[in-house]
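Lab notebook, bench 4. Still working through the backlog of constructs that have no structural model yet. Next entry is a single chain of 314 residues. Request: give me the structure tokens for it.
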Amino acid sequence: MRKHLRPTPSMAVAFCALFLALGGSAFAAKHFIDGHKIAKGTIPMNRLSKSVQHKLNAKLRAGKGPQGPKGDQGPQGPKGDKGDRGDSGAPGAPGAPGANPGVPVVVVPDLGSNTAPPTSGTGDQGFYLTGGGPGCGATVARGTLNLTGVGVDSNTVQGACGAAKAFDSVKLNTLKALAYDYSVNVLKGNQAPGIHITVTGLTAHSHFASGFANLDFTPALNGVTVGAQQSYHADGFAPGAKWFSTTETNISDPGGQDNPLSLSAFMTDNPDAVITQIALDNGGSSGASGNFAAQADNLIIGFGSSFTRYDFGG
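Model written out:
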């Protein structure tokens, strides 16, 4: 007959120990991972609890050290590929006219004063010199036209001291260029070499029945303040260039000295006017006194499409 064993307290304790031993071992084998078996960097931050993440971030911030010194500049990298060509820029403003190698040059030889200058009635003549004496002199020497004195030459139709060229009644409106270079060695106020165009046939801007006048261009009238030993270029056809008539009926009328006009305005107002001579002179005035000395050269005179540069003294 099988006997039933009654468990004793000591047996109960043994069973519990055995259960815990077996059950605990089985639980650990299933859910516990030894820290030595976890490789570094294999657990991402987002797999940690929020509280652990906050603690780690705080520790990192607290442990940040000062910024280190700037490192040495690294070596230059290789040259990059050439970029695409950019768009063309807008055209620039036109430059000032330069010397035209196509303009023929005529050398005006050294000359003395001519007391009996040719007139337009003798045809298209070469240059002649006017003036004489300390108050009004002109010579061609040392490769330039030398102008002295502050006065005028009352024996000439242009009343000037300088070099003049006669023309056989050439239409004023065919004139297309008139320019020259100059410098002043001895200053007299703002006096400077100027141009006289002697004309007849004016229907406006002259109080003579013949329409006679000298059309004058002076640097002072065109806003130039002359300095000693400086080179200047004067252009009677430059934009805004002003001229006046010596025989305007009233000095303040349009075309008078106090109300100058462009040369093209004189041409428009006087379509039948003709040129009898053109003079490059000292720009003096009657009754003036004092000393003045200047040089002028490279006189350019152009009619239609034909331009000529006159080189005084070569």
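Notes after review: Residues 105-312 form a domain with the Jelly Rolls fold (CATH 2.60.120). The chain has three helices and 13 strands. Flag for follow-up if needed.
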